Amino acid sequence: MTFPTTLDGLYINGQWSAGREHLRVINPATEALLTTVIGGDERAVAQAVSAATEAFKSWSQTTGAERGAILRNIANGVRNGREHLMTLQSSNNGKPLFEAAIDVDDVIATFEYYAELAEGLDAQQDSNVPLPSDDFSARLRREPCGVVGLIVPWNFPMVTTAWKLAPALAAGCCVVLKPSEVTPLPELELAAIMAESGLPNGVFNLVCGTGLAVGAPLSADPRLAKISFTGSNAVGVQVMQRAAETVKGVSLELGGKSSLLVLADADIDLAVELACGGAFFNAGQMCSATSRVLVAEALEEQFLIRLQKRAQAIRVADPFDPEVEMGALVNQAQYQRVLGHIDRGLSAGAKLLCGGHRPEHLPRGYFLQPTVFTDVPLDSALWCEEIFGPVLCVRSFSSETEAIALANDSQFGLVASVVTRDVETADCVANALQAGLVWLNAPQVIFPQAAWGGYKQSSIGRELGPWGLAAFQEIKHVIRAV
Ligand code: NAD
After folding, report:
1. Where would a tag sit more exposed on the chain, N or C end, judged by fewer CB atoms within 10 A?
2. Which is catalytic among the residues 287, 354, 386, 393?
């Protein structure tokens, strides 16, 4: 696929333009320059927020049915552009084409789900609130919270965007979106689809750029009602600090260090498949990555034999290779970060079961073998920190109590998985885990109807489901003397 040499990185008030900042967009599988996106700065952010503020006056007054119809247009636009969007995801992010297809289908499902919720809003508007008094009556209104800033990372471009954008528009909010400077191409195409969807000018604005040039002024702009951020904990803290100065609402989706618990009665082959899927999908660059496997002592030996065999058989290849199972990491910086974690893990005394190196058949691109460690010290960075690469740590346990304690021993609490043949035990363990989502004998499937977000330092708030919509609404009670 060929790209124009440069692309305009600003879509403000229904117009495309170029900013001043040149963002080099790389294909991680070849290290070649794909194109240069000309992004914005503080001035562009201010213009975008002004456009959104003006548009909010009328967009906030539209009916849910009107907004739902536009969300359905966006879903259809994404469906019509599915192949192209998949190609952009794989070219810009390095993920296999079959994974890009899952991403694009998730985006369609998310816009359709929030179209349905938007259409249902009109009947719920001004609902009565029962009061313990005959002297007063009360009604409840749900109103859009205002102009919102959305800041997203590079690991699931478009998906993290859709999880914020669809509910924000459904609620009646106007939006300024800042995609990752590493992967702006899918969002630029999504913006082109939005431009054709019937959205009034200024309701949706896009400002490409770096975190410092665009993300920081966006988080600080006093006219925003809310910032919804997905990314690292370090940046999430900065966003929250800036938002605090004008008491803006914040939703944060941050890091994870998630466990898969393989109980003594587990189907070992299923456990191996789930461990590999959780650890190596998207080359492990997932906040929900399975980074720890806790396996019952009785199964450990067999589990490790089969896990090593499966991990070494995973075909690491170009994202467009029809046989590919795992693609490239997103860029040089992330590649070096993951290699650094592997080196530090070895220095800390962890034992490398397999992987840890560039595959021999791929001399270029940010490719890494699926990597598995055992004997990982509990106080090492490898065990405690988010790696965000295809690296899995395995440890055995002697009791379910110990397994739950090991899984919960983390600053994060995003997701967890359990493999067991005993349905009752599965539910008990799920209830004891400090995680926002627990999969039982299941791969990491996500549905827009079910909430996304975690405990502890993984999140503030929840995305998806009705909670994702409520995050963009204010609640107003009107109490009247009868
Ligand atoms: P990042 O924090 O470096 O960047 C995220 C976004 O913030 C980017 O758009 C970036 O430009 C912007 N940004 C950077 N500095 C900023 C600043 N000072 N002010 C405002 N914005 C700024 O994260 P990343 O490397 O792009 O993504 C990886 C991280 O995202 C991982 O930690 C991962 O766990 C997290 N993540 C979490 C979820 C979730 O749902 N919990 C989902 C995906 C990714």
Report:
1. C
2. 287
